Amino acid sequence: xxxxxxxxxxxxxxxxxxxxxxxxxxxxxxxxxxxxxxxxxxxxxxxxxxxxxxxxxxxxxxxxxxxxxxxxxxxxxxxxxxxxxxxxxxxxxxxxxxxxxxxxxxxxxxxxxxxxxxxxxxxxxxxxxxxxxxxxxxxxxxxxxxxxxxxxxxxxxxxxxxxxxxxxxxxxxxxxxxxxxxxxxxxxxxxxxxxxxxxxxxxxxxxxxxxxxxxxxxxxxxxxxxxxxxxxxxxxxxxxxxxxxxxxxxxxxxxxxxxxxxxxxxxxxxxxxxxxx
Amino acid sequence: xxxxxxxxxxxxxxxxxxxxxxxxxxxxxxxxxxxxxxxxxxxxxxxxxxxxxxxxxxxxxxxxxxxxxxxxxxxxxxxxxxxxxxxxxxxxxxxxxxxxxxxxxxxxxxxxxxxxxxxxxxxxxxxxxxxxxxxxxxxxxxxxxxxxxxxxxxxxxxxxxxxxxxxxxxxxxxxxxxxxxxxxxxxxxxxxxxxxxxxxxxxxxxxxxxxxxxxxxxxxxxxxxxxxxxxxxxxxxxxxxxxxxxxxxxxxxxxxxxxxxxxxxxxxxxxxxxxxxxxxxxxxxxxxxxxxxxxxxxxxxxxxxxxxxxxxxxxxxxxxxxxxxxxxxxxxxxxxxxxxxxxxxxxxxxxxxxxxxxxxxxxxxxxxxxxxxxxxxxxxxxxxxxxxxxxxxxxxxxxxxxxxxxxxxxxxxxxxxxxxxxxxxxxxxxxxxxxxxxxxxxxx
Amino acid sequence: xxxxxxxxxxxxxxxxxxxxxxxxxxxxxxxxxxxxxxxxxxxxxxxxxxxxxxxxxxxxxxxxxxxxxxxxxxxxxxxxxxxxxxxxxxxxxxxxxxxxxxxxxxxxxxxxxxxxxxxxxxxxxxxxxxxxxxxxxxxxxxxxxxxxxxxxxxxxxxxxxxxxxxxxxxxxxxxxxxxxxxxxxxxxxxxxxxxxxxxxxxxxxxxxxxxxxxxxxxxxxxxxxxxxxxxxxxxxxxxxxxxxxxxxxxxxxxxxxxxxxxxxxxxxxxxxxxxxxxxxxxxxxxxxxxxxxxxxxxxxxxxxxxxxxxxxx
Lengths: 277, 444, 313
Hints:
The complex is a heterotrimer of chains A (277), B (444) and C (313). Chain A has 277 residues and is mostly helical. Chain A has helices at 14-37, 41-45, 59-67, 70-101, 107-116, 122-135, 142-146, 153-163, 168-176, 181-192, 194-210, 213-218, 227-233, 242-262, 264-273; strands at residues 235-236, 239-240. Chain A has a single domain (68-273), classed as MetI-like (MetI-like fold, Orthogonal Bundle). Chain A is 69% helix and 1% strand. In chain A, a hairpin with a 2-residue loop joins strand 1 (235-236) and strand 2. By secondary structure, chain B is α/β, with parallel strands linked by helices. Chain B contains 18 helices and eleven strands. In chain B, helix 2 runs antiparallel to helix 13 (351-361) and helix 17 runs antiparallel to helix 18 (428-443). The longest helix of chain B has 18 residues, at 19-36. Chain B starts with 18 loop residues before the first helix and ends with a helix. Chain C has a two-stranded antiparallel ribbon with strand order 1-2. In chain C, strand 1 and strand 2 form a beta hairpin. Chains A and B meet through helix 2, helix 4, helix 6, helix 10 and helix 11 of A and helix 1, strand 2, helix 3, helix 10 and helix 11 of B.
């Protein structure tokens, strides 16, 4: 491969400089949140402008944890996100596989129907959904958060696109060998879908960890609250404790950041292979 | 990253997920599903709905309030043997949750609600009729205005737990430097002109303003103070239609619009903006209209900054008028513990318990006996004395207007129309006409 | 690595195998297909489509959420037709989508192109750009409100520190919309970047090289080769972006509350305000139904285009 002719791979190229500047702009709000989290309330918004905390302190975190059982909230969020992720990923893979590799009448219609659910604004169907969930007796249990959103269209779409690229010959071969439908899925399709699974795991975990409006309505018992709900509390009617709020907000993003950082390569690869077209 | 060829790509070792890992994850999931975590077991009858054997109480509360509530509940539970389960939610989300719960028959036994919102639920049949469930003569112990605030069509639907009102808090240093001497008695409270003159003397820069008024969002009804001060009303005497436009409303609107036009108040403190007390702690404003319930939050913040603050009365015009703040606690009609609920409410708003709550939470009482004897506030008793005096100017006329069943919807109309006036610079006559239309529509 | 091998591995969706070979097991396949789809269909049906139908039904009533309700037929829709706030919120949503989506796509593509070639620390940089997307909507909204707070936010404080006047991010219409767009773009650039990065990996370097040797400079390469090749990806991102934009809620609710006036009221925030603040749930349902239909139509158009493309391949 010929060496690139413009710019270089080093740090002084225009490209690199632009990217780094852009990155700084992207990071600045988060940086400012970090500064806030370690400041005390008094010096924060008045007095001369300082871009770093004058007397860094962990007080805000102590206050936040003292005000609400955030440790418990983290555990709740993790439990819900993990189980919901496992459920959703399984459902997505199944549906994507069927929609990609099976021929049957109504296939297009089903796919379109599923896609159309992407367009339903959450706030609008919230109340009927709640009535339904309440009728099932699921209020104040994790089921109410996990199940209604377990089937979701975006993941199915990704799976379908990805699996369209699985060579039919391989599936044929397995079928000819006498494998049943589920066995083909399990033994042939899944191992081929690792990058896809990586993408799904990351995205689903992220969506479920970040969910706010629905868990707020459907979980009334404070001991079941998730982290985003806890954050909403820190914005009280009685004045906002910005350092505590920013501190917990940042803390709440750590798990996702960790997950994404860890699986970054697989993620990009998975997106690439889903052949988004 | 070199890419391998052919079909083997699909099974390359780039992924960290083997089938074993997948199985393991699923197994963990199943273990969780079987109830190892408390949230996974299906629990009907738990949580915040009404259930036998305990009282569920949904509310919002600041730290001080919550501590007070819990202490009182513990005391009552010790006597009655019925535990009280608290469900604390953010203020902005409380009614959404209550609505959803009511719509699916999972309402709590008790919830806290503002006087402006109680009518909506009473009218909708969601509340427990307490008239015959409270001890004889109990309801007479409340100041008339508050007894009326929780009465709907002659029946009692909640207990007026406490009240609040607003004063003008000021930064002592800023005010002194501007040569302002705030009035110290109700009779000598600032007139509209005097108040505006004083405000103009405070410095205003790019990021600093003279004062802010607490009429944001749910507090939009506090704008009616100004109308009442000039002797006017929003709703007619029969409370069935609008009384605007009228002279008092026009004048009040002209005055309050001028605050924005002259740059005396931050533009973000319009009715759709964010709550104004924040700006006082950041020294963006030198004076703030604030409720007593904010003292537990403001005081530590200001003390930490080493700032001294005081309070003076709301401006007066033809009369003095202040806003009806505070909350009632109500029981739901679908509660399965109606007796226990009524008993708890009677206890909660009774002389003794109410006195303790008000002192700890720094709010004002609604029991006549307490109003007469005065309470012993641990935090700024000097300012609370002024709040008590100001509360005597909460007129019955204003109370009856802001407690009509549809007031919640009327308040929303106020938010929109006032925003148009303050930030949109709309013509006052037009704004009031529009408001009249809205009110008419919502009262029907 | 030969071009041929790369093409073989490329993830172009392979067209379906000739029907002939599948017909034998077709009936059994159909049964299996429906069977395997059942869990998903059940969940969609019960938890999404049923409530959606309930919302349609609710939009024909006047209801406060509890208590008696009154049938009004198309009354809510007729009222919407004359509701200035509704049309304003529709306009705002369109403007918001119309700016946020292209801007985030262009920036995302730019960043992806810049990162497409070897660069030290690329992985870290990529993570930095993607980070805002990963943060929850609540956190973004809260952070946005804090940073863009007109009085004490860091943006205005920085502006004032260098002698410029602060911008009225909450109390003037255009700045408020700008703040919203900026915050949204901040979160969406990373996603567009990742998708474009992935798509760029499928642009055979031969095309770029061939153009270079022909003397075409980078800009022309970009316009005439790369961008057209990325069109399907762009279309995908546009549709996704439009769907997301039409459902925007958290940021608007927290940052501006729809204000000043109605300047930043969006369809979903208006529906929420009508449903939960003003307690006109039937009316709110009608707004939701209309929002849903608009996005449905837009997506149907995309689907048609998609099918045409797949057929053409």
